What does this fold into?
Amino acid sequence: MKKLLLTTALMLAATPAFAKDYTIKEFTKDDGSPVFSPDKLSIQPGDTVIFENAEDTQHEVMFINVPKGVDEMIMSPMHEKKGDKFSYTFTVPGTYQFHCHPHEAAGMKGTLIVGQASKPGETKAVDHHKLTKKLEGGAAPSAGGDLHQGVGTVNTVDASKRMVNITHDPIKSLNWPKMKMMFTVDNDVDLSGVKPGDAVSFTLKPAGKDDMVITAITKK
It folds into this structure.
């Protein structure tokens, strides 16, 4: 009997917890202050956080400080209307800090703890200001004017949300190093033949203040 109970306990301990979904709303309070709600959240590795715009005002999610084990930029497209969403599944434990770029000066920011908080020296800053300057005209001119060409490997595809995650090679016209990024895809682009693992070439075009949209994508 003791052996049976011990075996059962070990099996339960080895069984991972079910992943959960959490929602953070983006909206403006009655006093005019733009906020994330909640602006502090603790989750477990494997959980997904959905950032949802709760009003017809522009908001954006930029992660400005992340654990050193994170190898990609975590940044949403611009949320321009009520109901626009961005979701991300967090797998690396530690402390994450984020803000809304358009409302950074107004103090719209938040903190996310995945598993347990990071210790001093275990996080790194992500310079989104530098990236924003490149998107706003600090980049080198491209052969196609406002268009920029990239190549990379597809990680995920969400045709219903018009989103693809790509690990791309350096894009010289944008002064971008090799990065893993989430991109919005133009409605005219056919994603039916694009799948994870595909080597692709793609075309980027500025869309709004801080966003880049894929206007063409082909398998290599």
Residues 4-8, 10-15, 134-144 have pLDDT under 50 and may be disordered. The two ends are 60 Å apart (CA to CA).
